């Protein structure tokens, strides 16, 4: 299901993982590296898909059942991810062109991610995307929750416009609920890692099943 009516926004907040880039290889390998380092068996691909979007610490704690073990796992994860995993990643086809055209149309662009800032900055720079964005909001390294509403809140003073003229674009229900906490609409992309049913039931402004569909909603 994709709504066909284009919307006119003055600012767009983009999620990173599963929206701008496909991080599955790097994240899944880093998660399993961390788990095996503390003696836990690796997870299968289907289970690992659910790790893209939620808080990393919360995901480890859910599997391990111990916040102290989760702390250790996060440290192992970051060791591998920062060295290798963040580059085991790819930009979704059509994203660079969309960002360029949005900027040319005078639309202000931001990143709102539940990742921490250093890898976010490095990923965007590595793939040549950083220059498109006016500002980046990420979480603190010690933040265990990765609350998307708080991430979005940190960008609101930069917008300088009514929130109805801004939109969040992301691939999970956390993007939808985070935007809704600030009375901001959200377009959910279904080409990422959120379950389609969950996204549909969360009632975003629109669903986009491809970058082409997203382009139509925000630009054409």
From TrEMBL:
GO CC term (a single one): cytosol
Pfam families in the record: HAD_2
InterPro entries assigned to the protein according to its UniProt record, in alphabetical order: HAD-like_hydrolase_sf, HAD-like_sf, HAD_2, HAD_sf, PGP-like_dom2
The keyword Cell cycle is assigned to this record: no
Keywords assigned: Hydrolase
CDD domains per UniProt: HAD_5NT
Molecular function as annotated in GO: hydrolase activity; protein tyrosine kinase activity
Protein name: HAD-superfamily hydrolase, subfamily IA, variant 1
Provenance organism: Chloroflexus aggregans (strain MD-66 / DSM 9485)
